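Case study: tRNA(Ile)-lysidine synthase.
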Amino acid sequence: MIEKVKNFIRKHQLLPSDVTIVVGVSGGPDSLALLHFLHSIKEREGWHIVAAHVDHMFRGRQSEAEMNFVKNYCNQHQIPCEATQINVTEYQVNKNLSSQVAARECRYLFFAEVLKKYDASYLALAQHGDDQVETILMRLLRGATGKSVAGIQAKRSFENGYVIRPFLSVTKQEILHYCEVNHLEPRFDPSNEKETYTRNRIRKVLLPFLKSENPNVHTLFQQFSERQLEDQAYLEELTIKSMNTVIKRKSAMELIISIPDFCNQPIPLQRRGLQLILNYLYNVLPNSLSSLHIEQIFHLITSGHPSGYLTFPKGLIVKRSYDFCMFTFQEEKVNTYSYFLHKEDKVLLPNGDEMLAVETTEYPKELNLNMFIVNPLEIEFPLLVRSRRQGDKIQLKGMNGSRKLKDIFIDAKIPIHNRDSWPVVEDSEGRVLWLPGLKKSRFETPENTQLSYIVLQYKRR
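Here is what the predicted structure looks like once written out:
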């Protein structure tokens, strides 16, 4: 293991000689082994080692005992140690974050303080090869794109220096063996056993299966990560050059692109161009943003509809108007939205509701107002799921003529504040097909000899 880690450090140029390294130490086997390893060769390399520990205060006396363990270990080995207790639960509530995201933000804020205090340029963290496999799988399952799919980087910029991860070339089992051989007695966090976390389920179920197929799967995933990052760096250069011909106006809060110029670019650059736009406008991407949002923009731009409207996290609005598409954080006077719904697709509405289109060969046995059946040979996709517009009418099923949506809302006693966010489903010819939960149009297909149907489903949160 020692030679593997040394070779990995040299290959990725993680650490020069004569520098100060802050090591994030939780007290667990991974971080304790990393601290021991770096400290054991510090004299030869001329390194100055500082340990940094954060007690997140999630587990009361147990986590406080872990902090004291790290402090005592560092005292015994004459390693400078900076330790702190942070009420992450309070931070989580104030920032409206998940516990894991809140803990990560608090840790990195503290690490930045320690780096500054010791004038250090390197923060060493103990993620290992198994963590890399879990991270890549988890991000793929969540629909990640671009650099995110590459997982954990061996070296990345942080503050005025770098975060480095020297253990990405070794497995958890190798680290545990290292602890045993060197008589280390790490602490174990029981939360790592909880199957409520996606990562833990991947660790307990998928990772053992992959290792049974190939014990060196972590090496393959690390190679994938490195190649992915290399490819992404090259494609990003091409994307930046191509997007310079597409962007027509840009400010801190708004960006406008030419749709014809955009569509002339190769598709791989188109998708990366959209990602670059989001990176630029958001600065820090929201966790709720995924590849689904990229696909929604892509459909908006490349569809035959001359106009459309999307609402994204943190108030970003994406609007198409003929040959131009605007990305803006400027507030709209009216809370409107517009999404394209394709076959075998789903749309997330601003209020959290979902609209799905599912293809099936069997006609549903039980119909209701939250379901609408489409004959794909008669109605062209994509459909438009949007908020209501002034003068909207629907040709009701089983009736002659049409009715205003406004009157339907009044008859159903829908509160005024709910009407503007209520979804309306429209076809490519501009006909209102369905007012989910309230009324259907005469264009719903009956059961017949069709080989397949498209079932639209409206799911409330």
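For the exam, be able to explain this: The longest helix spans residues 217-243.
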